[in-house]
Amino acid sequence: MAKKKSVKEKPKKKDLNRKESDRKKSMTSDKLAKIHGVAISRTSQAAEAATGARATLNLGIDVENPGDKPLYVWATTKDYAYDPATRVLSVDLAEPVKQLPPYIKMISDHPRAPAQVVVNPKSRATIKVQIPAKVNRPGPPGGPTWVEDPIGPIDRVDVRLQHATEPIHHRAGEPPPEFRKRLREHGDVVRAEITPATEKEK
Fold first, then answer.
1. β-strands 123-132, 200-201: how paired?
2. Burial of 31 by CB count in 10 Å (0-12 exposed, 13-18 middle, 19+ buried)?
3. 88-93 and 156-164 strand pairing
4. Are 25 and 17 in contact (CB under 8 A)?
5. Which region holds residue 150: left if phi is over 0, alpha if psi is between -120 and 50, else beta?
6. How far is residue 94's CA from residue 159's CA, in Å, rounded to a whole number?
7. Alpha carbons 162 and 79: distance in angstroms, whole number
8. What separation in angstroms does the CA of 24 have from each of 1, 28, 35, 91, 190?
9. Which has the higher per-residue pLDDT, 193 or 202?
10. What tens digit of pLDDT does each residue of 160-200 get?
11. Which residues are CB-neighbours of 77 under 8 A, at least 6 positions away?
């Protein structure tokens, strides 16, 4: 009788800060920024109706700098996504790793330097970002290019956060592909999946 192959269980997700395996680290793990929490608030339907403004999600990301040098932490959302099945909101405050489907062509690509917040050594700061309360996802082949979906209830927030001991800026005359390469290689990226503080309406 043939022996049954043993199947290893996949490790469960935990609330932890982890380094990305596809990047070369410029700092040791004890010097990397740590993400301690995420608070979320939404604009209320009454506020939307009164102002006519687009509904938004306001995020406050609690970041610690455990090292002995100031960290320049990215404070610009580069990408975000929402999975209604798992209720996970993914937010990239780092250069995105996702690629567009091959049937969607980008007409122009002009990367911009992110806003950067200085977090002093042995201290914490709240990185505040705002995103629309809807997500655009690529549409099916032959259909609309983009489809808009609302962001529903959020159980977990998956945050990618890029930071370095030096700021990054665009250099005069620098071609977009070269600046994009520098952005991707700049500093370090930490990632954490966290249960957010209770959502509130404003």
1. unpaired
2. middle
3. parallel
4. no
5. beta
6. 9
7. 13
8. 47, 11, 20, 21, 12
9. 193
10. 999 999 999 999 999 999 999 999 999 999 999 999 986 65
11. 91, 92, 93, 129, 130, 131
Answer whether residue 24 shows pLDDT above 70. Answer: no
- Position of tokens 């690509």? 109
